[in-house]
Amino acid sequence: MINPTYGILLLIVFIGLICVKMPIGFSMAVTSLAYILFTGRLAPSLVAQNMAISMTSYTVLAVPFFIVCGQIMNGVGITDKIFEFAEKCVGHIRGGLGHVNVFASLIFSGMSGSANADVAGLGQIEIKAMKDRGYDADFAVGVTAASSVIGPVFPPSNPMVLVGVATGTSIGALFLGGMVVGILMALFMFATVYFLAKRKNYYVAPRASLSEVLKSFADSFLALLTPVILIIGLTCGFLTPVETGCIACAYSLFLNQVVYKKISLKELFESIAEGMSACGLVFLMMSAAKIYSTVLADQKIAEGVANAMFAFSSSPWVILLLINLFLLAMGTFLNPTSGIMIATPILFPIAKALGMNMVQFGVIFVLDLMIGMLTPPTASVLFVASKIGGISFERGVKAVTPYLIALIAVVVLINVFPALTLGVPNLLLGGYAW
Questions:
Q1: Cα radius of gyration (the chain)
Q2: d(CA 7, CA 73)
Q3: Among the listed residues 422, 293, 311, 408, the one whose alpha carbon sits nearest the alpha carbon of residue 362
Q4: Minimal CA–CA distance to 347: which of 382, 322, 367, 372?
Q5: Banded pLDDT at 432 (limits 50, 70, 90)
Q6: Could you tell me what percent of the chain has a pLDDT over 70?
Q7: Prior bond to 23 cis, omega within 30?
Q8: Are 75 and 256 in contact (CB under 8 A)?
Q9: Is there a contact between 331 and 369 (Cβ–Cβ < 8 Å)?
Q10: Which of 22, 412, 76 minimizes the C-alpha distance to 222?
Q11: Rounded mean pLDDT, 146-170
Q12: Is 158 exposed, middle or buried (0-12, 13-18, 19+ CB in 10 A)?
C-alpha cells in the first residue's frame, strides 16, 4: 500500500538537495536510492538496471552528436559572417541592428542550439555593434537576451532531442514544429523591436544593394546549409536522428578544417572535449532521471498531480494553463536539460490525458523552459547579456520585459492553435506526426 508520506518526503528531500546546490543528477540519484533503501518497496538492483536501460535506446546516441556539433560550430568562427548577412538583409528596417540581432540569432540557432552559446558568442558581437552605432545599452541587452532563446526552439535543438528521447516522440516532428514556432518568435520580436525603435526614434540605415546581399549570402552559404541538411535528412525519412547527428558533426568538421580554417587542431580537440564533458552531465541526468521516474511511478506522483489538477478544475484549458505556469516557474531556476529530465515523467502523462498531441506539447514544454531563462530570479541568459552590455541585472530585467510579453503571446498562440506546431510536421510526415 502506498504511504503518501513517502511521496511528500521524496519531493522535500529532492528540493532540499537542490537548495544546498547539489547537482541535479546527483540529487535525483541520491533521493531515489534513499527511497529504495528506506521503504523497501523496490529492489536496490533497480538502480543499476534503470541506469543501464536509460542508455540502451539507439536514439540516445543522437544526443552527444548534436552537443559536440554545437561546440565545434561555436568554435569555427562563423558568427561574423552570419551577423554581416543578417545586417544586409534587415539592417535598413526601423530598429536596424535590433532586427539584425533577432535575424542573426534565428540563423545562428542552427549552429548551436543553445541560448547560452548564442548570447555568449554572437551576443558579444551584437551588443558591441549596437552600442557603437548609438543604440543604448539597455535596448541592446534586452533584444540580445530575448533573441537568444530562439536557438533551443529552432532546429537543430538539443532540448528537442532530449524531449524526443525521454518521451519517445518523433525528433523530426519536434524539429519541424520548433521551426515554425522559432520563426513565429522572431516575427513577434521584430514587431517589438520596431515599436521600441520608433518610440526612441533610432536612426534608419540605408538599404543594402542586391549585389551586397548576394555577396554576403555567398560568403555564409555553407554555414547556412547546416539546419537545411538536418531538416531535409529527418523529414525525407532516409536519415535517423542518430545519422543526422553524425552528419552534422562531420559537416561541422568539414567547415572547420576545409572551408573556414578558423581554429587549430588543438582548439578543435578542446571544443570536442568540452562537448563530451557536457554529454557526461546529460547522460548522468538521463540515467538518474530514469531511476527517479521509476520511484515517482511507484508512488504514483504523476497520477496524484493529475488528480489534484482535475480536482481543481475539470476544464482542460485551466489545467493546460496550470501546466504552462508550472513550466515557466521551473524554467526560472532550472536549466532546460534539468527541467526536461525532472518534469517529463510527471507532465507528459497529464498532457496525454488531456488529449494533446505530444509534438505540440513537446514544443510548448521547451518554449516555456526557455522563457524561464529570461525570468528572475535566476535568468541565466539575461545575466550573461547584462554583464556583456555593462548594465545592472535590474536594468536588464526592465529591458527584456517587452520581449517577454511578446514570447508569452507566442505561448498563448501555440496552446490555442495546435496547427501552428502540427501543420508542417503533418504536411511533411503525414499521420506519423499527429
A1: 22
A2: 44
A3: 422
A4: 322
A5: very low
A6: 83
A7: no
A8: yes
A9: yes
A10: 76
A11: 82
A12: buried
